[in-house]
Amino acid sequence: MSIRRHGKKFQVRVTAKGHTVTQSFDTEVEAQRWEAQQKVLFACGVVEQRLRATISLKLTLADAIDRYTAEILPIKRGRDSEQYLLKYWKIAALAKRRVDTITRQDLVAERDKLLRSSLAPASARRYLDCLSAVLTACCRDWMLLETNPMSQIRKPSNSKPRERRVAPKELGYLLHAARFSPDLQAMIRIALETGMRRSEILSLEWRFVDLEKRVVWLPLTKNGDTRTVPLSREATRTIAALPLRVDGKLFSKNGTSLSAAFQRAVKRARQTYELDKNNAGSALDDLARDPFLQDLRFHDLRHERISSLVEGGFNLIEVAAISGHRTMQCLKRYSHLQTSMLIDKLDGMSKTMLPNEASKSDS
Asked: What PANTHER family is this protein classified in (predicted)?
């Protein structure tokens, strides 16, 4: 707090958490008295509450989204996908409301609206989590709310992890369909060979690639860690064939454009497959039930690579070093793939531990 003379008036300035309120008085004595009162109120938290009320009278959810986009989103990982979700909330009817008037009932209505749409429960949860991040910033960073009303509602549960495997024949059709986009074809190969996440592939820069040592360094991953990814021979050849770009990145696409390009390639690959099957005399009903290249996403390539590593004999610690999973719990879903190898090991131990009948009779 401070008092300064402004013309014939004495002005008191009160600042709390980056926000300022001023009051003018005719005499310095009045200014000092008011300042002393504010110090007491400040200690009790009253000044902070008044500042919050004054600011929130003007700030709508749309304003909060704009501020979040400008101040917080640029330093977050996965900002491309979050920016896409924020656009939904920016044009929603709720965006016109003042943030301090948004209630738990409002958010329940928005949740139910999302669940009534074509979105899966896990996707609806991502929209709600995105809005919750904005409301959390209103509480913690900007002093506009005391609590986040989103914390008081039940969110849809996350769906079970996808178990979609990618067959070699599907990969052949997919890579052929992606030949029209060299970037896309290269990203598919890199995902299959390294198991890197989509965001990690998109963020690759030449300064972090060492083709001689056959490694890629990821300075910032989804879980916040750095990671060195080993490159297979095929991955090394794929990266070495890429043209150099002015911005130093390996690829120009973002998350949205990559997903769109990938789905176009999947659609072309499926059309080619159906044409081949028609030429071979397959019935239309059979094709309609054929799951070939159906429900395929880019992230399934990572799942396929991790699954193949486990099936290839890599233990889970080695797999985690390649995939970037922070805990063994995250890889638990892949442990069933090791069952056949464990059975072989158990059989081997049984042979060494238990004598057979012939050896018993000989003794």
From this structure: INTEGRASE_RECOMBINASE HI_1414-RELATED, PHAGE INTEGRASE-RELATED
